[in-house]
Amino acid sequence: MNLKRKITSFFIFLIISSLAFAGGYFTHAYVQTSETDFQLLAEAHSLLTDHAFFDLPEKPTLEYGMIRGMLDAYGDTHTRFVEPVQAELSHDNLAGSYGGIGADLDRDTEGFIILHPFPEGLGLDAGIKDGDRLMRVDDLDILPETTINEAVAALRGPEGESVSVTIARPPEYQTLTFQIKRESIPLPSVTWYAAPAESRLGIIKVNLIAASTAEEIENAVADLQSRGAIYFALDLRRNSGGLVDAGVNVARLFLQDGDILEEQYRDKPIETYKVKQAGPLVDVPLVVLVDSGTASSAEIITGALQAHGRAPVFGTQTYGKDTIQLVFELNDSSSLHVTAATWWIPELETQIGESGLIPDTLVTPEDDSVTDAVIAAAVEFFTGDG
Questions:
Q1: Which of 99, 194, 283, 322 is 20 to 30 A from 78 (CA-CA)?
Q2: What pLDDT was estimated at residue 36?
């Protein structure tokens, strides 16, 4: 029995020793590699730590600065680092919805963040009142120096999970705490209205190309048609893009057949996105409105519709962004957006990244005019009325 225990103990000792050796070896190899790869950085950091008169910033701030410096040296304007709060808000925007309590945020005259609960939202149902000061979200104290984006990100989270919200209610600023279960809050990427000078022209303003955008456009067309619209303008001005797949799906709404775009990642074969079947809006009379702020996925839509002769384009030359970024979430929920691929519209003669898209009808808005010249050009195109 004792012999058995001794043998067992010996093998346990042997295993632990082996693991410790392996762990030490690989850790040493990693550190050695890191020091070799970034020896100057490590040396500079050590000197700064040992000799700097002023206190160094906190670790996240210092690391963020190092990352930004690395990306600046890399030299691609579209490869970028995004801090946690903004990364979360950007993810929500592209998803088209978020888990929240149903409230807008603003500041009062003293700089405190206040809540404006949505009608019929969970925040209002739980007892939040318009103008309540937001004082705490879970373990985060909300101070006057807290940014609204930080407060928004704290209130958001997985749908169905509860969040603790502490408020101070005017005029006595009595403190109250509510446990509110987050619900799914839509973030529309599309708004729509009838053109002021011609109610038969429906304007579909797309602010961002999100996962929900194609469905939102279909809803917009249906609503505008119910109100008498027979012509439509897809307004992509000041739209910086979004999801590539979502842009392809928007183009598919309006096309009968054919290729939409081709894309290629490094060392990968070219992939072609095609129209799978005639789109539900293929017969809708359409123009596209663009400007220098129209970029990326918004240019995919514009270029595909223009290349297929589906819709004339009005406005000014577009931005010209024909690259795709992969988004990688880092350990602290910040993210790194890395340019990983390029795309092009097969039927176009020039690359979008070289010069952007040139409208079929160039319309330069006048800053001092109360009339939207681009929409006026669309009205004239459909009706012949100036």
A1: 99
A2: 52
